[in-house]
Specification:
Layout lengths: L1 E5 L1 E2 L1 H18 L4 E5 L11 H9 L4 E3 L10 H7 L18 E5 L4 E8 L10 H11 L6 E7 L3 H10 L6 E5 L9 E2 L5 E3 L4 E4 L8 H10 L12 E10 L6 E9 L1
Parallel strand pairs: 1-3, 2-11, 3-4, 6-7, 7-8, 8-10
Antiparallel strand pairs: 1-12, 5-6, 9-10, 11-12, 12-13
């Protein structure tokens, strides 16, 4: 089974790239299951119903979120009514939606878990304990377990992946918008990459206009961020998983223009 994970889709250039290319990419790489991080797909961050529907129509099976999960006021209804979109599991328990989902695709039952890091991020419940609780809940209900860990620091991502090594099949990182070159299979069999990157404008600072970020660093004044315009690139990662054993046979980073 070939599983595609797609890095944070940023604003109009990112979503247009997805609209035009995701189905072709899935066909070219023989993808069976696709996870897209959609928390930045709106120009002002967050995700709307229209853009969620677009991701699904273009081939996403599950959409994950992050620290901008609730930037758009449509998301609560989405989360409560569609299991194909999940928010980080370590939000407070009263939060709309769920931090995981399970989908049966015949060849395998696939669980996707979303969690937020706590280092240099807004205060949040412990992601380790949140994922632990979900794993207890889904015992015997999933054949493949995948975690999108939306976190700032490499150390927190690597620590979490090693903590769950052998207990989940895949851990991939999102949020930093920079693809890392450390894809590997951990000692107990979990496929891992620290960050799968960003689908958005490459001539930018993490999808934001360069001059705005440079001005912020030079003047130390708060400035209004504006998403960059221009040509987009696609960042993601393909995991080859044995549907019967859950073993990771191959990991391939995707960097497409």
């Amino acid at each position: 089974m070939r599983i595609l994970t797609v890095g944070d889709v940023v604003a109009r250039p990112g979503r247009e790239y997805i609209f035009q290319n995701l189905n072709k990419i899935k066909t070219e790489y023989s993808i069976d299951f696709c996870i897209v991080n959609g928390e930045n797909i709106c120009s002002n961050n967050g995700i709307s119903k229209d853009y969620f529907d677009m991701l699904i129509s273009r081939g996403a099976d599950v959409v994950t979120l992050g620290n901008h999960a609730f930037a758009n006021n449509q998301v609560e209804a989405l989360l409560d009514n569609d299991s194909r979109i999940i928010r980080p599991a370590n939000y407070p328990p009263e939060t709309a939606g769920s931090g995981f989902c399970i989908h049966d695709f015949g060849a395998a039952r696939i669980a996707v878990i979303n969690a937020l890091g706590r280092i240099y991020m807004d205060p949040m419940d412990c992601p380790f304990r949140a994922i632990e609780k979900i794993l207890d809940e889904i015992v015997g209900k999933a054949d493949i377990i995948i975690v999108d860990f939306h976190a700032e620091t490499t150390s927190e991502k690597i620590a979490l992946a090693n903590y769950f090594d052998g207990r989940v099949n895949i851990v991939f990182g999102t949020h930093t918008h920079v693809q890392t070159a450390d894809e590997r299979v951990l000692p107990n069999g979990t496929g891992y990459i620290t960050d799968i990157g960003m689908t958005g404008v490459h001539d930018s600072v993490l999808g934001v206009k360069k001059e705005i970020i440079i001005k912020n660093y030079i003047t130390r004044r708060r400035v209004r961020f504006e998403k960059a315009l221009g040509d987009a690139w696609f960042n993601g990662c393909v995991f080859d998983v044995d549907a019967e054993t859950g073993a990771i046979n191959r990991i391939e980073r995707l960097f497409l223009k």
